[in-house]
Amino acid sequence: MGAFLSSIVSSVLFGLSWCVCTATASICGAACGNDKPSTVSPSSTSGRKRAAFLFVLSIGLSFAFQYGVAPALGPNSNALTSIPRVGPYLVRAWGSGCNFTQDDSSELVQVCRQNNGVYRVSACTWLFFIFLSIAAKCKPTFNRDAWPAKYTLFLFLVTASAFIPNAPLFSPIYLQLCRIFAALFVIAQQLIYIDIGYNWNESWVTKSNQAEADEAGTGKKWLAAILVSCGILFSATLTGVGLLFGYYGNCTTNNVFISFTLVLSLVATAVQLSGEESSLLASAIISVYATYLCFSAVSANPNQVCNPYYGKSDAWNIAIGIGLTVISLAWTGFSWTASEMHSSDSDAEESRESSPLQREDSKVTGLVTDTNTAHHEEGAASNTTSRNETWKINAILAFLASWYAMILTGWGSIAESGNEANPTASRVSMW
Question: Is the pTM higher than 0.85?
Fold first, then answer.
């Protein structure tokens, strides 16, 4: 039976090796420029949607590793330990660095294995998008090339990570880096939500103006919808702050966090309304987001007097965090603002296919001897500049990979039923 299983494993490894070699050759060919002409600029959606779908796959694999693979690789797993060499090795690899001195440490070891399962997928995703970011910086068209090969290599990378021991690569090295990257992404995420608020407000104001132009008085419903949305969001903020005071306001530290969140939301709203281009929706969205961050902080407090729910499964925190991840991912993959970070085929085509009359009507300043040459050079310069920005989306996705890993693992804390192996981690994540 053991020889039969070994032959199956060898066959699978041989097949995976062939797929990796083929995918690597395809990517190398694309990077060398023999897939599509480099003169054809990437569109505003080049690679973005494919990258977003790959990121969704990454989140799914993280859940699978956390709640499927990690429990199956426990020391009492007879199905895997029966596989010669491979089974015992995987059990040792996934249990590496999970040795605790607590009397009842079996649950903590389980949580440790689950967290490291998430770190594996997150690290592979981070490395993958960092590589894509560098490649797209050197060759902008690489962002749209060879996606079947990219998916194949990503899956192989995740599979290979299962054979790497937890310590020291995933925990503590990647864990510490992940906390830093996630903290930086929190700042970027605020900018994303501000942009969403402005775009949302602008879209409905535009619809209000159009409706008012078609029929007087019909545009008010869009303005009313903006006010209703703001009311809902601000109500959610006040409700959340009240619940935080009610459930977590048993000590000074938590009360300071909650009070500061409320004051900051009020100040941000006042500053927004005092500006020339104010957006109440943007303030409302940021207030809700700040309330969530406050909830994440106080729910990570390791002091059980301040946090009576410490060490228990926090499904709400994970669900809200994944929801915010999906919103950020949707912005990255599909928003109009993010598409401005890419070049646009449609804009380039309009520039190339504009009629001679349109080109003659356009204003040209300075000393120009050939209008066609001037327009061509201006379009080429603009096109080259925009094409060089395609790497930014991949960089955002790399930081987003660190963020969702911290959401799924409580910023690296290992706690269960009020017992914790690393209380320092919870204090760090709280602040």
Answer: no
